[in-house]
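Researcher: Following up on the earlier apo prediction. This time include the ligand. It's pyridoxal-5'-phosphate, with the SMILES given after the sequence.
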Amino acid sequence: MSIRFFSTNGNVPHVPVGSALLQGQAGDKGLFMPEAVPALSAGLLGKARDLAYPDLAVEILWPYVEGTFTRPELEEICHSAYDFDIPLENVTGNRHVMRLDQGPTASFKDFAARFMGRALGRLVKARRQGLLILTATSGDTGSAVASAFMGVEGIEVLVLFPEKEVSPRQRKQMTTLGGNISTLALPGKFDDCQALVKQAFADRELADLNLSSANSINIGRLLPQSVYYTWAASRVADIAGGQKVVFSIPSGNFGDMMGGMLAMHGGLPIEKFVIATNANDEVPLFLETGSYSKLVPSRVCISNAMNVGHPSNLARLVSLYGGQMDETGKINTIPDMEKMQDDLFAVSISDEETRATIKAVFEDYDTMLEPHGAVGWAGLTRYLDANPSAVTAISLETAHPAKFPDEIRALTGREPDLPPSLQGIEELTEQYGELPVDYDAFKAHLVKEYR
Ligand SMILES: *Cc1c(COP(=O)(O)O)cnc(C)c1O
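Model: Understood. Below is the ligand-bound prediction.
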């Protein structure tokens, strides 16, 4: 029996994974969650360290997609999606950095986007009806989705980005592709882009456009993000013997953390997830106080992909701990806060501390971090200072330092090496439209270009 998915708002029937992937957001504006988190079997925990990444991905993802894809299809998806390295660097003692930045667009978002592009491509082909993917980006989602969906038959992609908050390199990664990929610059913030996209999903007058999402409101983003936690833990700890690991996750929309949560609730021995935000500290405050208020407007920080004032995935976290939060952030049923605080250590890191961390980690350990990974490392350091333990710890590096060359050069005196994926990008021609932050204008654009 394959797992079905319910909406966190609870007002639509439970659906199989294919339908959840195609819809993105549920019809009642809730987010899809699996009815049950499949357990990682003792056998799988035992052999995980001997499995190559794509094979481990197949093992972990199979229970979620069984009945929608065949096993050979899932194998094909995972093997073609995960053809790049995942360096796990020992930085000092038993503290490691996992670099999730070796994919084609140099951020961890490639892991989910490449799975989704392939999965949705198959689903769209099978139902013979096109799809228009709308995606808001704070910097890296847009390029990862654009690259992963480029040339996929039957799917058009439209990326909305805040014009002043993405770096020129991040922008060029998504505005130079053409084909089925289009981009729009808005004079606002990520949250404005995300709000427009969500409003379009809920607009019945646009139903004929077959809209879907490739943001982490789509469950297809979370499932693949659960795999690297098990992969990394199996490489540094005896997970079959129950040896625990601490992970630190630099977080914005909390999709990466939800991937980790699925692994933990599936039985991966995790002592704690450190969730480290930049100055957008609404989630650390929520964990501390139990009451939630979104940050409007969100704060502009150098870790730009985490400038999120109202993270979508909080509703999923609340759901996983027995509560209910609606799309506006209102809590209708209080989750088990004590259990949540037990599993998570939330911390907000300032830009000043982020910069100091990049400098110190480079000088002390010759390890180059970029702003997001530095927020993660600083959060881990805070946790270990407060809870000295001998436990093995892994901090996630979510983007390549070469995406932020000016900051890195100023702090370390070194020019980050340009990965092959970013080479030659400066010379390509950009093409993107511009729109005000206004729903009517956005809707008119969708109707004109895509109906
Ligand atoms: C998107 C992003 C994050 C935040 O991930 P969430 O899943 O939104 O919490 C962190 N670092 C980088 C580099 C990103 O692109």
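Model: The mean pLDDT is 95.
Researcher: Noted. I'll compare it with the apo version next.
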